[in-house]
Amino acid sequence: MKPPSLFLSLGSEARALLVVAWRGRLRGSAWLWMEVALAVLVLLLVIFQYDFPVARLTPIDNGAWVPGYGPAAEAFSFWGDYLTGTFIVSFGLIGAGLVAKRETWRRAGLAALLAATLAGIPGSTLRLTLGRPRPSATAAEAAAQLHRASPAEVVPLVSFGRSLRPSAPPDGFYGPHPTALLQGFPSGHATTSMATASALLVALPEIGIPATIGAIGVCWSRAWLGRHYLSDLVTGATLGLAFGLPLGAAARRRNEVEGGAKL
Question: How is the chain split into domains, by residue range?
Answer without folding.
Answer: 10-131+184-262
